[in-house]
Amino acid sequence: MKFKPEGVMPALVTPFTRDGDISEDGYRQVIDYTIEKGATGVVALGTTGEFSYLRTEERKKMLKLTVKYVDGRVPIIAGTGQHSTRATIALTKFAADLGYDAAIVISPYFLRPTDKGYYEHYEKVASDGNLPIIMYNIPQCTLGVLNSNVVEDLAELDNIVGIKDSSGSVPYILELIQKIKGKMEVIIGADECFLSAVVAGSKAAIMASANVIPHIWLEIMNLAQNGRVEEAAELQRSTQTFARMVLKYGAAPPVKAALRMLGINAGRSRMPLDSGGTLIPEIKEEIRIELEKMGVISKLEHPSVQDDINILAVLEDQGILLEDVSELQKSSAANEIVSVGIITGPKAGLVGSAFVRLLTVPKIGHEALSVILEPNLAVKPSTLMFPTRKIDSMRQASLFYGPVQSGAAKAIASFLESEKIPTKTMTDDVVILALDIDLNSRNRREITAATKQAVESALEGIWR
Q1: Residue 99: pLDDT band by 50, 70, 90 thresholds?
Q2: Burial class of residue 386 (count of CB atoms within 10 Å of its CB; 0-12, 13-18, 19+)
Q3: Residue 387: is the preceding peptide bond cis (ω within 30°)?
Q4: pTM score of the predicted model
Q5: What domains does the chain contain, in order, with CATH numbers?
Q6: H, E, C per residue of 273-326
Q7: Could you give the CA distance from residue 294 to residue 296 in angstroms, rounded to a whole number?
Q8: Cα 254 to chain center, whole Å?
Q9: Res 353 pLDDT > 80
Q10: Catalytic positions, please?
């Protein structure tokens, strides 16, 4: 019977060691994980497998390892596309001899053929390669598009069983489904097109992110095929940020980072893809958070928010000692997400000196920032905010200096609008806010609202 692609199949990563060698144990771990999570097949040496960085002998080694580690549990598809037709046929025959179910063949790249050249290439590989063939359209890498009329003609050949489209073009993939549905399978290669293609009739996907979340893609497919499209759409939305990160950062590096967070030895990428700065710590943190949101890994719990911030003690930790407290006013407030300590006093006094010291001699991880409503529009009285908890990552900084600052500014602006702030205070005094936030929070709007509520409560203790 003709091989029929179906379900969700990962384009397996190829784990490399620090020295750039193939990590066989890591590869076995990746295969075991994807199959345990429900993958309906696996694809060796796809784009995410960094096939273009492997010599032919290394590709043959990977093909052998895949057969060995899969051990008949699911169908296996070999990536056999090479620059020339002859080389592609040779590697396809090699995969056939190993017992592969099909071969996925990328369109010839670097030196691009005409439409006639594409047709003759695939026709020759299909007739001489001894395996069912899946065409592979990824124009962002090959710089050439498999036009739908060429695909339609190739669909008439018995040994071509599908086309994987990774162009990311919904109109293109829908056109293919319209023209060749029933003749061969249109396979989804672009994550963000997944639901659109499934609703239109696609029944198979080969994707990089399926190394990590094949079970989620399968659930989306099942929901859509059973008419529960709204539920499927909601679930797909939960994957979108991770899917975009996979595409943005070169597929293999973010996928491998995610797998390592799951305890799987997915190794590194090969140079030049593994360029040292491919994934900076902040990007890895964002990947971890997306995995948490999808329920793939457990949430990393940070310490709870400080219940009561003693602003004088916090300033002392910053190297600022206010001995004479007669000229200042202080207050504090907290909720489940934000805790705040406030101090206010004359610009010309101790509070004013502390204000200047926080700006000019910042403590690393506790840098102070002026509170503004929008660029070039600072609140009145002049207000400074700084974190009591050390900021350790770009994400934490974006939370504190983004939604937290916004919430603090809105709170002070609301007091100004309600005329609760004395006129003399607006011109003669400054305000310092020490804030702690729940780093477990994921909703930026929720953080802004909680900050506004906490700061307003604290301000009530000063300006009633």
Answers
A1: very high
A2: buried
A3: no
A4: 0.78
A5: 7-293 (3.20.20.70), 311-460 (3.30.230.60)
A6: CCCCCCCCHHHHHHHHHHHHHCCCCCCCCCCCCCCCCCHHHHHHHCCCCCCCCC
A7: 5
A8: 7
A9: yes
A10: 136, 164
